Model the fold of this input.
Amino acid sequence: MQQVEIDDRLYRNVLGSFATGVTVITTEVDKMVHGMTANAFMSVSLKPKLVAISIGENARMLQHIKDSKQFAINILSANQQNKSKQFAGQLKSESEVTFTYFKGLPILDDSVAVITCDLHSEYVVGDHTIFIGHVTGVKLEQNDPLLFSQGKYRELKALEESETTI
Done:
């Protein structure tokens, strides 16, 4: 197979054009809560119920998930942009975050949805580890999701019925 050279910035821009939701992955190790913002999340299987998250090799969260063997995926709502920035390390002054617990894991209130998982398996792929989680619980609220595309946070807007015809 021939190696094709693709510019890193162009590659990131192309991948960033895919609109995604925003999540904060949380876990607890030795009574310390850890969290990080991530948009690399997907459903894997319905039977059994499995999801996947992808964590970079340099992220501190990588070892926390390996140690705890469980994690929660908090799918952020439109009003949680500052939480996304805080867990991404983008805010100069961090405010204290209050966590509640669901299925034994720390979660963020007001998220659109929460998925709790036990670690099912992990795969090192390139410069990331893909963690497959066996779903142990789900929680759903009626909030609009926080979206991210082309390097910016976005809002969900319903299309007019006439615009949805294909």
